[in-house]
Amino acid sequence: MMKYFQKLGKALMLPVAVLPAAAILMGIGYLIDSNVMAANADKAPIAVAVFLVKAGGAIIDNLPILFAVGVALGMTKKKDGAAALSGLVAYLVVTTILKSDNIALLLNIPVEEVAPAFSKIQNAFVGILSGLIAAGCFNKFGEVQLPTALSFFSGKRCVPIITSALMLVVSGILYFAWPPLYNVLVKFGESIVGLGPVGAGIYAFFNRLLIPTGLHHALNSVFWFDVAGINDIGNFWAGTGTKGITGMYQAGFFPVMMFGLPAGALAMYHTAKDNKKKIAAGLLIAAAFASFFTGVTEPLEFSFMFLAPALYVVHALLTGIFVAVAAMLHATAGFSFSAGLVDFLLSSRLPMANKPWMLLILGVIAFVVYYVLFRFIIVKFNLKTPGREEDDDVEEEKNAVLADNDFTKVAQIILEGLGGKENLTSIDNCITRLRLEIKDQDQIDEKKIKSAGIAGIIRPGKNSIQIIVGTKVQFVADELIKLAEK
């Protein structure tokens, strides 16, 4: 089950990767004219700004459809376009049948008497569910052979047809299940929302704790997307909501990702052993830059998550505190990808942005707090953060080549550490990790793999291993596939 949810988290990265396009379009549009969507503006908006904001809105407003298509494609074995088409078909069938107007027609009642849940049927949850069902149909029926008279519909051509028929059944189930499920999600969201800034901090704390499992995506969907009516990201970028409140589940991540974690990396570098500082720097500098510039934190977090788990819990607590403080100050900014410099600059001109400069002040404070705490805890408890490991295998560690962008060499080292291509059964990757299926865990040489400059290794199952590479993972995966196919 854990493996399935981790795969789902990886599949969600495909549609989420589209969001920066919306951020760029809308950010530039609001930069040109900050009042472009204001209903009571005293002058006509600039046409170019309207064009860009509406173009970006087309992506944000249709995120559930992107989820349906992206999840369907990402969860299939062959990554075939027919699966994506089936995801779209599944989503259109269920959301059309369960529209408030059609429910009113079915029950012969006024539309005002239809359960409010059906007005929110076009949401991220239904999009993900549609993608999962379509992917399941493709995996099971994508190679089915029909009788000669129906042979045209054999294989993947029959998948959208089967998916649409199955969604009729799913629609019937959701007719009864969606209203109570929606109410539970709303109550959960309201319980956190009702706690105000404290609730935002609690959410952020668990957001970080769930990173190792990949299940933080499920938690994020409740607060960031329109699953329980919160839709913090969508409302922030669309300019709807309450200024100073909308964005509270995003804003506090900026001080942590842009300043706090890089300061933690500096503390780890300063406390590294003299003979390992160069190797530590190669890993930490690249990871810190990724955190600051793009908000991708996994390479840095995985560099100490398992070496010093207590330090990671401190990081999760600090994240919760800074998100809560930012919410208390009503300082808001938003992101479409993650809380890095790019999204900060793009979102700071949006109508919902409120006192974003205060996030920079919090960032300076976060830098000091993270550096002092990390350095004190590492030294006090002699934690084995990067560069503080035992002195054996120093020569092997000097072979770290990821920082030099020698992806072929990195792939070779990883393949050797995995026990050769004979031990590999599947190669895949998400935005920062290699996700591999292997035959025998006993053949894994973690020290060999880490000598390539790898941030961390996870073994989520008997035949599964994840290797934390960072944002360069696609290049490493491509080279690993080439080597495995030779």
Please explain how this structure is put together.
- The structure is a single chain.
- The protein has 486 residues and is mostly helical.
- The chain has three domains: 2-195, no CATH class; 196-391, no CATH class; 395-485, Gyrase A, domain 2 (2-Layer Sandwich).
- It has 21 helices and four strands.
- It has a four-stranded antiparallel sheet with strand order 1-2-4-3, with helices on both faces.
- The chain is globular.
- The protein starts with a helix and ends with a helix.
- Mean pLDDT is 84; it is low at 392-399.
- The chain crosses the membrane at residues 12-32, 44-69, 81-98, 158-178, 184-206, 249-267, 279-296, 316-345, 357-378.
- This is PTS system, N-acetylglucosamine-specific IIBC component.
Report helical residue fraction: 55-70%
User: What series of H and E elements makes up the topology?
Assistant: HHHHHHHHHHHHHHHHHHHEEHEEH
The portion of residues forming beta strands comes to under 5%
**Outline:** globular
CA-CA gap between termini: 33 Å
Number of helices: 21
| Major beta sheet summary | 4 strands, antiparallel
Tell me the number of structural domains: 3
Gyration radius (Cα, Å) is: 24 Å
Spatial strand order of the main sheet: 1-2-4-3
Quaternary organisation:
single chain
Give the overall pLDDT as a whole number: 84
The total count of strands amounts to 4
List the helices and strands and how they pair.
Blueprint (H helix, E strand, L loop, with lengths): L1 H15 L2 H14 L14 H15 L1 H12 L6 H17 L2 H8 L16 H18 L17 H35 L3 H13 L6 H9 L7 H7 L14 H18 L6 H18 L3 H7 L4 H20 L12 H7 L9 H24 L13 H4 L9 H11 L6 E6 L3 E6 L7 H5 L5 E6 L2 E5 L4 H13 L1
Antiparallel strand pairs: 1-2, 2-4, 3-4
Helix pairs in contact: 1-4, 2-3, 2-16, 4-5, 4-7, 5-7, 5-8, 7-8, 9-10, 9-15, 12-13, 12-15, 12-17, 13-14, 15-17, 19-21
